[in-house]
Amino acid sequence: MAKIYSKKAAVTTNLKPNKEVVSFILSYSQALTVVKINEKSFEIIAN
Known about the structure:
By secondary structure, the protein is an alpha+beta fold.
């Protein structure tokens, strides 16, 4: 008999990211540039 995997997982509501994580994501998103040429897209990270 197949197991049922649809039970709800425990949900944590106190998710607070570190300042370092937020800073990293913001700097990454500012450095990321997407260039579309014809039907292809290129992701460029400027460091």
